[in-house]
Amino acid sequence: MVERNLVNVLLLGGGFMLIFTSFQTLGNIEQTIIDSIKTDLPSFTGDGYTSLAIIYAALSLSNWVMPSVLSAIGPRLAMAIGAITYCLFMASFFVPHVVLLYGCSVVLGAGAALIWTGQGMYLSQCSTGDTISRNSGIFWAMLQMSMFFGNLLVFFTFQGKTHIDETTRSIVFAVLIAVAIVGLVMLTCLRRPSANDGDVPVELGAEVRPREAFLNAIRLFRTPRMILLSITFVYTGLALSFFSGVYGSSIGFTNAIGTSAKQYVGLNGVFIGVGEVLGGVAFGLLGTRTTTRWGRDPIVIAGGVLHMAAYFLIYLNLPNSAPFGNTDALSYIQPPSAIVAMCCSFLLGLGDACFNTQCYSMLGGVFKSQPAEAFSIFKFTQSVAAAASFVYSSYCGLHVQLVILVVLGIVGTITFCAVEFAVKRERPTLERDYEK
Using one digit for the tens of pLDDT, what is the confidence trace for 167-180? Predict the structure, then answer.
């Protein structure tokens, strides 16, 4: 018989997969879509990078009150409310207006804080110390399957198009909203986590009042261990904004790739998804074994190496001006190679899975007594970095952005490993105390 908490994790992963099939696809093509809207509607002055920056800025600020909110309404209701905001944001594209776009971006940022903090707390409630790595891997693999379906839709509907007309845009928006609504329904089917599935679940600590939950988050953020991990979280935010918004647009804007450049924006998302799912499955199936035997650091180091290789190839393949709009400029590989671009997409996805599955495992295992606070801090630092990245993406060329990613990637890998080494040193002591 399949354990009840595993069913909950599968439902959670399925709901997020559908919701983010919609949102990640839209985020991947937002700048490209808005560029076409401006051509049809010159009075529209919205900007995709600005919209995404607003989303992540609102998300980062909202995360500080999320432990208080979750202590009042619980993670399941929080995730349902958050999912509704994603549907509203996507619906706003049917009526292109700059105030509506940026207003819905703010609402979505708050909703994203709800859904992600709720997800982290709920996943911890459904896990034990022995199953947190497995459940994190399963959830991450299912979530990243979202990169396939929406981006395949984009690949086929954008086929042969250098301009995305209003009819094509409307079809894509309608399909994405319908898929998100199905995901919302799945999240409403989540059941209360069971405490009778074998091992003792990850501890949640005593119920706390909203004000105390907020103060606990502040205290946790100031601990040396969380400060070090926050550097890793910042890097994951920079990487997220790069591959989810900047890199795909850069491919689409590079005219030298050919008339299929806009199609490759969608195919880029598919290859990122392949890497994400492969990493999630591998670390989901092997996560408990590898974490127990070698720890989390080898996986994070592997992720860092994969990302460094991807950044070097992107530097060689795409021109510096690619993030800003259609360009005829060239880089070192002439003409730019679509095959190299898709290989980089795969490496970005696989490396991101290495980082995020281990961050989830670390937060759900090491900070098991304060899951809401820990995941709030994770999403706060990640979102601040993502918002900052989308701001400087409008001004900094591709090469400067890659340098920033390389530096923070190296530092973030080192700080994560430092915390993991400390956890390893504590483990034998805890085991001896338990035996006594």
Answer: 888 888 888 899 99
